[in-house]
Amino acid sequence: NAGVTQTPKFQVLKTGQSMTLQCAQDMNHNSMYWYRQDPGMGLRLIYYSASEGTTDKGEVPNGYNVSRLNKREFSLRLESAAPSQTSVYFCASSPDQGTNEKLFFGSGTQLSVL
Amino acid sequence: GNSVTQMEGPVTLSEEAFLTINCTYTATGYPSLFWYVQYPGEGLQLLLKATKADDKGSNKGFEATYRKETTSFHLEKGSVQVSDSAVYFCALRKGSARQLTFGSGTQLTVLP
Lengths: 114, 112
Hints:
Number of helices of chain B: 0
Shape of chain B: globular
Shape of chain A: globular
Oligomer: heterodimer
Structural class of chain B: mainly beta
Number of strands of chain B: 12
């Protein structure tokens, strides 16, 4: 029962470094999402992918890029990390295109940018 | 724009106490409303939902009623257990919008 798997669970970067957060789901879902969660704020959508080969910007896309490598995998890349990107990142997936009621989440990646 | 406001935590209760976590929203029209729960070390998971006014969502002893007149979707449980300790998120989705709008989350700790 793997569900949605995110790696790594924790990461510390220096300002300007790059890294990729990996996400994979084994539920054959069409849609995948990247959210960030900051203290005192709700989850905010960074990017989403409604199907393999498509990606779209969410509420806070600046400073990030994504790749929907195949139906299973959806990665999030920080090209030049900034302290403002210190956050907890959640990947999620859902079976339905065009709706996202039934989201299945990974357990999160805690990222600190110094 | 759309927004969700939850009561600030943390909330600490004794086992078998009554739980209320307040959630109010701002949105035009009739959004769908959700409660998600995040147990320690895990991802968020859907707890319950309601898609129209006066609907009551329920699951695992938790309930929430969609109140259009007060724009609220408060989460309640009559008797909490230690295993209910988690972070609870209220969220809404408006129409065919792809993204959910989340509240900031409320940490609940239940003591034996």
